[in-house]
Each structure stands twice: as C-alpha cells, then as structure tokens.
Amino acid sequence: MELITVASARQAEAIGKQVRLQGWVRTRRDSKGGFSFIELNDGSCQGNLQIVAEAALPNYETEVKKLGAGCSVTVEGEVRQSPAKGQATEVAAKSVTVHGWADAESYPLQKKGHSYEFLRTIAHLRPRTNTFGAIARLRNQVSRSIHDFFQEQGFLYVHTPIITASDCEGAGHLFKVSTLNPAQLPLQNGQVDFTKDFFHRPTFLTVSGQLEAEIFACGLGKVYTFGPTFRAENSNTSRHLAEFWMIEPEMAYFDLQDNMTLAESFLKRIIRDALDKCGEDMKFFQERVDKEILTRLQGVLNSQFLRLPYTEAVEILEKSGEKFEFPVRWGIDLQSEHERYLTEKKFGCPVILFDYPRTLKPFYMRVNDDGKTVRAMDVLVPGVGEIIGGSQREERLDILEQRMKEQGLDPAGYWWYLDLRRYGTVPHSGFGLGLERTLLFLSGMGNIRDVVPFPRVPGSAEF
Ligand code: 4AD
Ligand code: MG
C-alpha cells in the first residue's frame, strides 16, 4: 500500500496500484446503485480524485454516507480506469477512515461561489478553495523559479536583516520596532529617549534589503535577497500591502542597461516556468479569473520589452488625448493610470521606463550628466503596472553625500554605506521585484490581498 498524492493518483500510470490517500472531502454524492462518490482533494493539484465507496464498506451507513465538504479522510484502495468523462482514473475504496468531521450547517465552505471579499474573512480556511490552492501552488513555483534563475547564473543568496536602523527608500513609511512601554516612555527634553530602547536607538522593519545587498555585491559580485519587507503606507489599493515579499538582485559592474536585460530575462523565466509547470492551475485562472491571461503572458514572452526614457513617456502621455485623473507634466510621479496606458494601450507590451527626475527618486540612484535625472528604471507590465523598481547606484562618494543632504538624510548615519564608495567603489545596479505583484500578473487576480496567504493592510492583521 503506497501513500500517494491525488495528483499522482489522477495519472493513468497509477492504474492498478494499491494506494493510500489523505485529504479533504470536497463533495459526496450517493448513487442509486448503493454506493457513493467522494471527490477528494489534498492540495497536490487543482483537480479532485473520485473515490468510489461501496455499500459493503463496514462504515458505509454509519460514516461514509455522512461525509461532506471539509471532512478529512484516509482512503485505501485500488486505482482503476474511470468510466467517467474528464478524468483518467478513480479509486475503488477498500477502506475509508474519517479523521475529522465538518458540520455541514456551520462549515463556511459548504457552499461554493463565495466572493473573494468573504474569503478574506476566513483566511484560515481559504487555502481549501480552488482559487487559493492554485495561488499557493503558483506562489511556490515562482519562488522556486526565482532561486533556480539566480543560482544557475552564479548569484549568491544573502539574507538581509528584517530589523534595521535605516530607511532605504527615504520615504518615511516605516514601522517602528521597540520594546519601550508606550504608556511609560522614557523622556529626555520632551523627546523619547531611544537610548533606553532595546537597540539603544530607533529601529524599524525594513522596507528593502537593498542597502545590505549592496554591501555583499560590493565584495562578492552578484547577489540576491528574497524576503519580507514592510511599508507603513496608508494606501488602501488593490496593489499595496503593508507586508510583502521582494526579490532584490544586486550586481557589481552592472550598468542600467545590464540591469534591464537581467530584469527582462528574469521575468520571462518566471512566466515560462509558470506556464510549463503550473499548467492545470494556469488553465484554471484562464477559465475562472481572467480570460485574457494566457494570451497576455504568451504575448509578453514573445515581446521585447520596450525601453523608454521618462521624458519621452511624459511627451507621449501629454499627446495621448486621454483624460487622466491626474494630469501629466514633466516632474510628476506617474500614476497607475499613466503606467497602464503606456504598457496596455499604447505599446501592448512591457515597458521599462528609465531616467526619472532626480526629485522623484531615492538618494542612492546614480545622477545622470544632465544633472536633472537619475538612472532609475521601472518595469511596467500589462494588467498590473509597476512590477519592478530599480536603478544603477551612485558610486561617486561626493555626489552621493550631496544627494543625501538634498533629501534631508544625515550622511553620518550611513557611514557604512558611504564606505563602500570610499574603498574600492564600483559601478553597480540592482532592482526589486514584488512577489505579490508578480502573482497578480501571472494569475490575472484583481486584488493583491488574494495572492498573499495572510494580507497585512491598514486595519487588518487578524490571521
Ligand atoms: O520600487 P520599490 O519601492 O523599490 C525598492 O524598494 C528598491 N530598493 C528595489 C531595489 O532596487 N533593490 O519596490 C520594488 C517593487 C515594486 O516595483 C513593487 O513590485 C513592489 O516592490 N512593491 C510593493 N508590493 C506590494 N505592496 C507594496 N506596498 C509595494 N511597494 C513596492
Ligand atoms: Mg517603485
């Protein structure tokens, strides 16, 4: 008796095997002929396995006929060819052991077709639904592709800290980390005395592992981080989370063009693997979530990403004749509506915007010779907008210090970052890919809260 998954038992090669399966009942249906069909799912794949349970089973009347959605079972039996359409196999049960009942009256997933909004309120149960199973498997595959891609190219995986003292993006959207008692804060001249805090200084949850990744790149060459990042922005949109995962490669001796080339092949690899290795789930997204998804992804795979300077993009937007909610002029931060116009309507392919105004971007981006723009790049994709943000880094000590002051940062607090420019400085570049935005892009799902296991957004952190 071999313990196998539903995914394996659904393959024709399993026919004739004696197997044991463990999972959750999706539905039970009783046939007039005195036996029952149980649809079993164990998370290994989108499809269910049909179990045929005969009346001769000793617990048929007492247990099998009471099974319903959500009950957990172990089934032993033989895999045989299924006479039914749409499935190669089924299992003729020799025994059905019930581990846990799920009361049909109160089990929230008894009924099908719940809204995504409702499912968010039962984040502890939604992994048992088709959509969230598919998302979980896709997320797993994407994570794997990310490691495969970088490992095959000799990148070193580095773990950057989650607790930090610096604000990488300089945007001030930081969660504080403290063990001080808010009801009894130590004060010094009316200000909180953070020297009494755990780290003897103010500390935060990281918004990006970039600065630390730069440390490793400027010594070990090509590295990447892949971990959680945190942003205390009060933005209640379908594209923002307060806790999300980011992948940040950082490469010594890469300029901005090298950075773009890497970003493009990286995204294409992730798409190709998703299509190749998550075929059944991708088909599900196509049928149930977004009818365009497969053509859109195939289109991106076949396209060459368009590289467009910010200044030209602004000209295009100004001449577009579109009615934008936020009017466009040189110097503004592009909004999602502008980004999506460019990538969806105007060009119909991913667009890499680069050379943004220096006032819009963080201190670490390399200043161009025009003095007005920096070597920033944002990768915009159809369906989502910005999915990657990156840049060539400022490797010149004096200009970097000047940029910090310009943005109100104290260079003294970044002495270690400046040391990288003081000793053996190198041109280098990197970018950050948002994992959840990638999942939106791949699945066609509309809200970022539905592609992360436990969404953290303003006012919500229950599970
Ligand atoms: O453009 P961002 O802010 O860039 C950085 O953090 C750089 N330090 C990266 C680097 O160069 N190493 O963020 C990068 C990506 C965005 O393009 C987006 O995909 C995602 O991270 N992202 C978010 N995803 C979900 N919720 C949020 N609040 C996000 N903020 C950024
Ligand atoms: Mg960005």
What do you see in this structure?
The protein has twelve helices and 19 strands. It has 463 residues and is an alpha+beta fold. It folds into two domains: 2-100, OB fold (Dihydrolipoamide Acetyltransferase, E2P), CATH 2.40.50.140; 127-155 and 242-450, Bira Bifunctional Protein, Domain 2 (BirA Bifunctional Protein, domain 2). The strands form four sheets. It has an eight-stranded mixed beta sheet, sandwiched between helices. Helix 3 (130-152) crosses helix 5 (256-277), helix 3 packs across helix 6 (279-288) and helix 3 (130-152) crosses helix 12. The mean pLDDT is 96. The structure holds 4-amino-1,4-dioxobutan-2-aminium adenosine-5'-monophosphate and magnesium ion. Magnesium ion (MG) is lined by residues 378, 386, 389.
Key words describing this protein structure:
alpha+beta; OB fold (Dihydrolipoamide Acetyltransferase, E2P); BirA Bifunctional Protein, domain 2; 2 domains; eight-stranded mixed β-sheet; 12 helices; binds 4-amino-1,4-dioxobutan-2-aminium adenosine-5'-monophosphate; binds magnesium ion
CATH class of the largest domain: Alpha Beta
Number of domains: 2
Beta-strand share of residues: 25-35%
| Strand segment count | 19
CATH topology of the largest domain: BirA Bifunctional Protein, domain 2
Poorly predicted runs are: none
Strand order, biggest sheet?
7-13-14-19-18-17-16-15
User: Measured on Cα atoms, how large is the radius of gyration?
Assistant: 27 Å
Small-molecule binders here are: 4-amino-1,4-dioxobutan-2-aminium adenosine-5'-monophosphate, magnesium ion
Distance between the termini: 38 Å
Second CATH tier, the architecture of the largest domain = 2-Layer Sandwich
Helical residues, percent: 25-40%
CATH H-level superfamily of the largest domain: Bira Bifunctional Protein, Domain 2
- Biggest sheet descriptor: 8 strands, mixed
Number of helices: 12
Average of the residue pLDDT scores: 96
- Structural class by sheet pairing and helices: alpha+beta
Morphology = elongated
